[in-house]
């Protein structure tokens, strides 16, 4: 073999090696050159998970601290998820003009400002200022989610985009679980309203023979009477409890500011920047004529509504129907989130073998059946069914997201993702309706008397029906398109 042949063979081997490396990169969920930005952006999923799930237990806490109705206390979710709806489209328009990095920095700044507004809210002992703080905080979360989701999708080959987003989303429950633990261990047990409830139970041994829903109503009445009899003592109790609520928000604000500074000084790839002028009308027409996208937005609204209802009112379920304290009921929320986290990793693995639409439909059917169990089964069995719903919800958000954005360019996905973030408004409307149902009367179905808390869970059941229809429809059309021979 002469030198020229050796050189050709060496060059051929080099090309084969390069081709092999390129193939490996193409099959990786996260290519090696995107690992650092992927890890950094993935931290945001945990940060907004923390904000979402430290806030859910406050619906019940604020009801007792401010002595308001369930419908009024659910304004916490109205403000929280209403902020998403307000800022989703503006955030998407902004990030089309700037980089993903800039959108993330804006989001983190708004997050910190909203969290810090709990300081004047607690000092003034004003429920409305808390609502404004949550509203501004979720302006930031809207920026983060509108930016981070499509950014993750763009960090590698399109073939693995859904897997990549599911992997990043798998860290969202870690933040959520942290928020739940903080609420369970640091907030709810430290509230003086919780001590008042326990003192009332100790003073009335006859409560042990009564239905938990009856006991809950009597304690609420006693609390209202105590506030009228000794307003100064009640005000002192409110001031103490609001200071307890404020503290974790101040801490997370400091952490968010630190993360923001890391983003400011980190060099991140701009994977979706385009210089072309925004053609809003044609883009909106393109999005609105895509059945996948429109169906995805609708399904996402119902999914978020179901998730927030199940995780917010599990505390009401545990306290009113099982007789648990707020902290004890929140522990079952933590169990639900632990199951949610484990199920997300398991379902991400299963997604390699099932079409996304099929898996989504199966999970929705499971969620609906378990919700019916929570409605019709008594005691701890019903509570465990409600906990089990989280296993079925685990992969719904990222799967719907990935299905809806299939086929969009990175820049179009910025505005397309805004519609999916806007769909989080389902978390604003539906808990409000469920709170009103809990304030209402129960009903009798097939001879079984159902308390108002049980009846209210028909709302998440309807949500799962809608999601199942979307998932199975997507799967049916995907299977049909695969079966059709390719045109030549």
Q: Based on the structure, what is the oligomeric state of the protein chains?
A: single chain
**Major beta sheet, strand line-up:** 1-2
What series of H and E elements makes up the topology? HHHHHHHHHHHHHHHHHHHHHEEHH
CA-based gyration radius: 25 Å
Number of strands: 2
Helix content: over 70%
Shape: globular
Mean pLDDT value: 86
What portion of residues belong to β-strands?
under 5%
SS field, number of helical segments: 23
Low-confidence stretches: 19-23
Largest beta sheet, briefly?
2 strands, antiparallel
**How far is the N terminus from the C terminus?**
45 Å
Which structural class fits the helix and strand makeup? Answer: mainly alpha
Structure in words:
The protein has helices at 3-27, 35-55, 58-65, 70-73, 75-97, 100-116, 118-124, 127-153, 161-169, 172-187, 192-203, 212-229, 231-264, 280-288, 291-322, 326-350, 356-376, 379-393, 396-404, 410-422, 426-439, 452-456, 458-483, and strands spanning 443-445, 448-450. It has 488 residues and is mainly α. Helix 2 (35-55) packs parallel to helix 10 (172-187) and helix 9 (161-169) runs antiparallel to helix 19. The chain contains 23 helices and 2 strands. Strands 1-2 form a two-stranded antiparallel sheet. It is globular. Residues 19-23 have low confidence and may be disordered. The chain starts with a helix and ends in a 5-residue tail after the last helix.
